[in-house]
Amino acid sequence: MHKRLFHRPHSIPILLALVLAGCSLSRENGQNHTSTTPDPQTRTIHRSDDAMGTLFEITVVVGKKAPYPKKAFEDAFKEIHRIEDMMSLWKAQSPLSRVNANAGKMPVSVPTELLAIVSESLEISKLTGGKFDITFAAMDGLWDFRNPDAKPPARADILERLPLIDFRSVLVNQRNGTVMLQKENMKIGLGAIAKGYAVDRACLL
């Protein structure tokens, strides 16, 4: 039985609130901005970074005279990017991409965290009767949302790929630490769950 890694939903863009011992106000590389707080002895620093196809913003409430918490910001964003490198659908060398590249061929050894996230996703798929399904990624490429001139895909193209959307065809072997997609051309995407996990991990630092 895998350990449940997190237990609360998150919205996008994601707000990660960290209350620290204090820091001086600063602005680095245009990523930081400040705002007032009800307590005159504290101020708030916001720092943001792009990851996982969205904007992560960390908010720190600090004392007026404390040093700038540079390491806290750096450690949190480093952890978020670490999760991205492991679970990104768009990075060819990520463990997740290796699973997709071997769909219908062989099981792939993956990091413990990725194994647990895939297992958690399949649990949610069972609970929702497939309304949440990480194998939706088989539809990748039919519609480029980043292209303003893109048009919805043809019905025939959609129907051709629908059989590939089936969470029951994702095999997780906890003992061997592997994930396998049973059907060739299947893909899994973890964007709907990995972002929340990245926030939880950053909160623990």
Describe this entry's structure for a reader.
This protein is an alpha+beta fold. The chain has helices spanning 70-87, 95-101, 112-127, 155-161, 191-203; strands at 14-19, 32-35, 42-51, 54-63, 108-109, 170-173, 178-181. Strand 2 (32-35) and strand 3 form a beta hairpin.
Keywords:
single chain; 205 residues; alpha+beta; 4-stranded mixed beta sheet; 3-stranded antiparallel beta sheet; 5 helices; globular
Shape: globular
Tally of helical runs? 5
The count of β-strands is: 7
Proportion of strand residues: 15-25%
Q: Secondary-structure element sequence?
A: EEEEHHEHHEEH
> Could you give the order of strands across the largest sheet?
1-4-3-2
Q: Averaged pLDDT, please?
A: 84
Distance between the termini: 26 Å
Return Rg in Å.
Answer: 20 Å
Give start-end ranges of low-pLDDT stretches.
6-30
